[in-house]
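Hi R.,

Here's the input for the Broken Fe4S4 cluster complex you asked about:
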Amino acid sequence: MSATYDNGRPLGRLTIHDDAQQMIDRAHEEGIETVWDRLRAQEPQCGYCQLGLSCRNCAMGPCRIDPFGEGPRKGVCGADGDVIVARNLGRTIAAGSSSHSDHGRDILEVFSAAAHGEASGYRVTDEAKLRRIAGEIGINTEGRSTSEVAVDLANELMANYGSAKGSLSFVERVPALRREKWTGLGITPRGVDRENVEMMHRTHMGVDNDYVNLLLHALRTSLSDGWGGSMIATELSDIMFGTPTPVVSEVNLGVLSTDQVNIAMHGHNPLLSDVIVAAAEDPELVALARSFGATGINIVGLCCTGNEMLMRKGVHMAGNHLMQELVLVTGALEAMVVDYQCIMPSVVDVAKCYHTKIISTSDKAKFPGATHVSFDPHHGAQIARDIVRMAVEAYPNRNHERVRIPVAPVQMMGGFSVEAILGALGGTPQPLIDAIVAGTIRGAVAVVGCNNPKLPQDLEHIELTRKLIENDILVLVTGCAAVANGKAGQMMPSSAALAGPGLRSVCESLGIPPVLHMGSCVDNSRIMQLAAALANAIGVDIDSLPLAGAAPEWYSEKAVAIGAYVVASGITTVLGVQPPIFGSQNVVNLLAGGLDGVVGAKFAVEPDPYKAALLIRRHIEAKRQGLGLPFIAADEIRDNESMAQTVGV
Ligand code: SF4
Ligand code: MSK
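And here is the predicted structure with Broken Fe4S4 cluster in place:
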């Protein structure tokens, strides 16, 4: 399926999905610019920036380093390529970590307000989890009211953001051996804000000029995300909105309705989407929709706000990152309600071609041309009703002749919180450990992250995942990777038929898919928690386990932060898109080699999903060997039939 636009110049394959391709074709026919057009307009992209060798950290610059040695080897200040690459990477990690952690802070502030009875529409939904988490971090829960415990928990977690504590509360979950490693390296995260501020300080001109020292702090900064801001976001969202349990939902553009008011919730934060879902059931608003000729109000998700809603409420999912413009091209959307992160500014321009309203809601994330409704959680329920009303009132403006909903939806299962996974296993990780020990399941891999228009949308996610499950490797997914696998039909219990015989038998006996949806980007913290629980149950460090991470189609700074904390936690991670570090051989050597001797894990870059699967399979077998489990030697795992390509690019 390749397009040939622009006077016959081949664009190559942009997506593997029919719904996306149909909307790309339609956008082209109607002269609507999309992300792929803008990528082409940017090419060739700057080679210095691709290598990480450009710096604009001060006004003596901007500077760039010539990687071939004929031009400048140092910036005006004297910084060399190692320092510039490491500084740039550190700032990228700080930006990603800050994004997750500020999301966590927003959740925490509303949780605190709710605990004080000051936030309309928010309450403690999972009381048992509130008490368990509070008890875990040393808060007395005996004989105390829900609000007393919640207030103490909020205060304790607030302190995680500053540097009042020696280390973050959830570091206690980390296996002791790993904590010792972090202490030895001086990378135990102290405060969420502290590590991020220090990263920015160190990368100012003339502060940290040692690339190793810079990269160690970059790891510490990422850990303040994975075991701090993101984990706080996940745990408090569960307490307020409910801990996910397995739920069947539907995915792709087919979830839009031809005869209902369609509202897409896009971004990351569940604070607004939770009350919007409730508002969409308000009888008065449903009656208003009917008065305009619609049969009801249909809420759908995009990106990670969508994942939050799918995980907890089974709300249907319209698509992942590269679908955000294409969903507008259906002409069927009355409103796209956005919070923050991964929302292209271009959605405003695409929406202008239709009757769709873009409604921004976070004062931190304004979009010129959008309608801004400032979201104040103290009045969350009322604001949600106001937003839904705006969408309903746009329905009469819909041009039904322009509506094109391209495909029928596909079923997918979500809702695999750590609690749900342990529940499916009978309350303990032991059955999973037994299956890994016996070799029925060889290991587990987290396939996470975004879409990137430089790659055919979702191809790498789907093919890598398919190869892993065929090889009896359990796959855990979050974010856009989850949506990709859902659309490909790899996330229902019946998808166990796609897995190797060992994994298939385990999935069939438990009634679960071989690819488990664990949530949104911040919910990668669930994967950390599960890895720690497995390591603690066996009495080893995380890096001993047959685990790996993969971010086949990543694009965002948040994804870099995630990759960094996953590696710093002891899980080797394979990236499908080259990060901008190749201007420094020293930095590459450290991240792709030396780090293994320090944190027991490293990065690899492999854009070919079949080679990535092979690499991961060998890594997992090596970890099995290290644990004294039955293993297959690396040279016996060849690029044979079981690793062969099933879908060509
Ligand atoms: Fe150039 Fe150094 Fe300033 Fe960067 S910090 S822009 S390398 S002078
Ligand atoms: S939405 S960060 S594109 S996973 Fe979380 Fe998807 Fe990546 Fe955004």
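One thing worth noting: The two ends are 9 Å apart (CA to CA).

Cheers,
M.
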